[in-house]
Amino acid sequence: MKYCYLFLSGLSFFFYSTNVSAQKNSRKLVTGDFRNLTIDDFVKQLESQTDYQYYYSNKDFDSVSITLSVKDQPVDEVLALAFANTELYYAIDDEGHVFLTKGKLVKTALPEGLLTGIRSDTGKRRQVKGIDIVTGETANKPVIKSSLENKLYEIGDRNLPGTQENTILDGYLHDSKTGEPIVGASIYIEKLKRGTLTDQYGYYTISLPRGQHILSIQSVGIKDTRRQVILYSDGKMNIDVTAQVMTLKNVTMSAQKISNIRSAQMGMQKIDIKSIKQVPVAFGEADLLRVVLTLPGVKSVGEASTGLNVRGGSADQNLILFNDATIYNPAHFFGLFSAFNPEVVKDVDLYKSSIPARYGGRLSSVIDITSREGNKKKLAGSAGIGLLTSRVNLEGPLVKDKSSFVLGARTTYAKWLLNILPDQYKNSRASFNDFNLNINHEINKKNTLYLAAYMSNDRFNLNSDTFYSYGNRNISLKLKHVFNNKMNALLTAGYDRYQYDISSDHNPVNAYKLGFDINQTYLKAHVNYYPTLKHKLEFGLNSIFYKLHPGNYEPIGGKSLVSPDTVATEQALESALYLSDRYNISTDLSVEAGIRYSIFNYLGPQNINTYGAGIPRTEDNMLATVPYASGKFIKTYGGPEYRVSMRYAFSDSFSIKAGYNTQCQYIHSISNITSMAPTDIWKLSDPNIRPQRGDQVSLGLYKNFKANTIETSVEVYYKRIHDYLDYKSGAQLIMNDHLETDVMTTRGKAYGVEVMVKKLTGKLNGWVSYTWSRTLLQVDDPLAGEVINNGNYYPANYDKPHDFTFIGNYKVSHRFSISVNATYSTGRPITLPIGTYYYGGSMRTLYADRNAHRIPDYFRTDFSMNIDGNHRVHQVTHNSWTIGVYNLTGRKNPYSVYFVSEAGIINGYKLSIFGSAIPYINFNIRF
Amino acid sequence: MKKYFVGLLLILAGSCKEKYIPDFTTPETGYLVVEGVVNTGPDSTYIELSRTNKVGTIQKQYEPGASIQVEGNDNSIFPLTEISALSGRYAAPLNLNNTVQYRLRIKTQAGKEYLSDFAEVKITPPIDSISWQRENNGVQFYINTHDPQNKTLYYSWDYKETWEFHSAFRSFLKYVTNLGPYGIDAVGIEYKDPATILRDTLLYKCWRSFASDQLLIGSSAKLTQDLIYKPLLYIPVGDRKISVLYSVTLKQYALTKAGYEFLEKMKKNTEENGSIFDAQPSQLKGNIHCITNPAEPVIGYVNVSSVAEKRIFISNSQVPRWNFTTECEEVKVRNNPDSISDVFRSGSLPTDALELSGNSIIYFGVTTPACLDCTLSGTNVKPAFWP
């Protein structure tokens, strides 16, 4: 690569002079009698008579002497005469720049990518290194694509009067190869300490002062890149970026990391599918939720559950969004695997602390999963045979460069897996499949339409003749409309359904089928507005209409005597209005404040049980059942939810962030099972069951070292939960039309410290995190009629105080890398017997306090080696090997410890889901 | 972009469920455990008192010397007496009035007093039948019962199995022993009863019994009729239980809803935990309270009901291809003192003569005691109900 120096003496003029004369075009003619003028004097004369700017090198012209007499000649004629029969050349571009050179003509219309320039050693006015000037565009001109870092993009109309101090730059980031949008990429202006992220459509918008800026563009999975712009007025710039390809030389990462120091978000993590695929997992099936589980503050009760417990929240307190659709059960296969096809997923955002005001309805976290957009350039496909699933993916343009689709399907044949699982799974059967369809269509520059559909199905039986099946069904349609580059809006409508049924026909007399489903229809309107440089406003409206069929019990087969029973359908409307503003008070201080006002209406028709005031809610104390007519507003809950966060940067490498937010949740999952089961009951708040409320205050310190290549952070949080539902001893949860008698409200408190050291660049990269946290619950329901643990605080099922995770990747060479995970956590609490007794011909265990003991600590190490074939980009196939061992030490990590009465005596058991080291080999071919 | 993904996997899986006793200490709870049904019929009511114990204690700790009485809400009182001194089991035939509610009052030797809630009398319908059928390489027994008045709804059962079985070999011979220099030694063999050569049934024919140790409960509350069809027990093919004649007797009790839920919770806590999706253990609360110290937990639920009983028999001939076999072998031994001494000292027992020369035994058989002596695993006293 050759470096050229371009002498841009006039650049400073672009910066500081905003009042270029409007009569420029009329002042083109030159008159004068020039005798033995130096180039400087000659140019002065010309400048005084015309509006052109002149660029030249003193060195090249130091021996030039000009003698010329002209009258009302155009500049080009004057220059032609002056330079006739010399080695000197001139060039004039459209913008009125005149380039004077020696020996070589300047091309004023530069072909893209061609580096030309005029050598200059002494800059007369201002010298800028390594910059090409490229004709920019205004907001009205067609958008042209740019792909090079060392070009200067002029954006906006230079000739607009300089009344506008701030300009808005917007546009899309696309993958240069596939045309797919780059989601969540950060665009950052180091000097201003200001940045933005692309949204899920790859769209960004940022408010900047007029002038020259360097945009640093970074995202996981793309090459770090920069764009240099000169902003005159509002304008558009679409940026194509290249996906990260392994290079044969050491990758030198930019030191200008958009670090955790700068982002206003706190407690937010983004992982893209490439990182997800790097982490060794059981059986080598890339698993999104398993990787989320390695993040600090996220726990689960064990390997048999994908139920996430984020900062002390229960599994139902996570809003899991898959392209705007709410996924009620994100698990396949007894909860061992997550239900998201890794070939379709693009990335996942986890919000565990400051949850943006646009999200609501769950207490502890938002997990926002985005799927890929299809290849807009050509039809492509992939077919795969994995260890657990086989899958087909097809993607391609519907209208080239305008619309594309992705279709993905997976199915399992994992019968063999059951044989290596514990006895609990023997004689079990399981199968699952899932389907994805995403279509996006660019109607015009201002309107883009997105369609997303998802379906999952699971069917299994667990060592019995009872069959379980469950599935998600989701479809959404979304319109993105760009009003102007200060405002854009999203309008989404969709339908989500989660259903399960349980059936058993082994005993013909009792053969039954139990059905349950949740349906929600929703409408979301969201507006992003950038009124000024310092503000970013978001506001919108969400509305969800719920319809739950909490239980339909019916006979199957002619001999069945099961009497059909239906728990009354529940319906409700949850609406929310929100407004949030991110205000950059100064470059060091920014505040984001949001308010969300949510309202929940429990609607008829419904029969509501009433109970005597102040006495325990039991069946005996039930006074009456009051019927309500269809559409009647039976009960309304609502209130404001506050979302506040601030960031103060002490220096480029040290900042402090604080946040406070409150949440409200109107739909509850009630379970007496440790893990998140597919058959958990979901219940809407009603006159007898209040919504859950929670708030969290958090504080974080962020310090980067070694030119931002090592990020460290400490976050502290304290969280309160009110009216969380727990079950009473021996609760009947299924087919219960007075569920309020079997549950009680508890209050919870969760607090902890999360420490993280992260190194994302270099041969050795990865992160180490340590979390200390507690989650304690306490029954505070005066109407429960019973208390757990005498009304004292007791640890939640997922209370694991110490949690340590190491994720490391070492690139031995460009084609060989090693990944190691290690994770340690305190064993989860369990209820152990306090004694034994004899009853019914057998010795039995006696239980009292809940969760007073713990299972042994959890420790696991995984190891994998990635061996790539050669890296020639242009070859038919690319292959790679992954060899790994899950649970390298073979430690039998207990999932549970339990006692069971067998043949008259009590036996204690320890159950491990993966009781040994599990090696795996994957061979991948792409072409 | 096309992609192929081919995966291979090597599995070296080990056992994932293993016996495990966590290291934890439990308090000396010593809570009172009350088990038994107040039988309204002419048969005796049995109430058994015991105490909860520390985890790891095997011995059942009975509560002897208490005084127990059944009290009606018509102020009737029926005392129970301890079956034998310090046995912890108390009994009396009661013949109660179905229209009265009853409760149990217990005074322990230590002076503590316990009282149950009044419970209505539940009338247990008769058992329709115990049916059985060959399925899945075994015999599955079912409970069939119904209440034409649709009033029972909640049931519990217990059962007792009894089976006749025979030794693999008959025992006609016995050792002739004397006291030698190294202790007792066998010097010869002889017929146990040389006169008749009668078969010795004392070691050959035995009976064994087994009482249910799992809680057996059922409900028809979700059915259109009060009808129960429920698996009772399963005997795999080849099991010794049906090698000759097998019998099971089933007792049926009607429960209140709360009484049913108590047993259901106990069953979930103690028999049905351990699976991935099973409910967590929970506290067990019955209908008996300590009056002296209301905070003291009491284990048990007093049900007041009549009792229905049914017995069936199955003989080996009713289950063709039962394929009952034993591991027993007979070893042929020459009738001389050295050989006899050897087999005697090996612990084997003589069976029968295998080769005779006139009246004298040339060869005889020996086998292990378990193959010859059924009393090692049963009783040779024929039960009264046995045909």
Describe this structure in words.
The complex is a heterodimer of chains A (927) and B (387). Chain A has 927 residues and is mainly beta. Chain A has seven helices and 61 strands. The longest helix of chain A is centred in the first third of the chain and has 11 residues, at 39-49. Chain A is elongated. The relative contact order of chain A is 0.08. The relative contact order of chain B is 0.17. With 387 residues, chain B is mostly beta strands. Chain B has helices at 257-270, 337-345, 369-372, and strands at 3-9, 17-19, 32-35, 37-39, 44-51, 61-62, 67-72, 77-82, 89-93, 102-107, 113-116, 121-122, 127-135, 138-146, 154-166, 173-180, 183-191, 205-211, 216-219, 227-236, 245-254, 288-290, 298-299, 303-305, 307-315, 331-334, 349-357, 360-367. In chain B, strands 3, 5, 6, 7, 8, 9, 10, 11, 22 and 23 form a ten-stranded mixed beta sheet that branches. Strand 60 (905-912) of chain A pairs antiparallel with strand 2 of chain B.
Derived from helix and strand composition plus strand pairing, the structural class of chain B reads mainly beta
Q: In one word, what is the shape of chain A?
A: elongated
Task: Please tally the helical runs of chain A, counting DSSP H or I stretches of 4 or more residues.
Answer: 7
Assembly classification: heterodimer
Biggest sheet details of chain A: 24 strands, antiparallel
Structural class of chain A: mainly beta
Count, helices of chain B? 3
**Count of DSSP strands of chain B:** 28
Radius of gyration of chain B: 28 Å
Largest interface: A-B, 104 and 81 residues
Largest sheet of chain B: 10 strands, mixed
| Global mean pLDDT of chain B | 88
CA distance, first residue to last residue of chain A: 31 Å
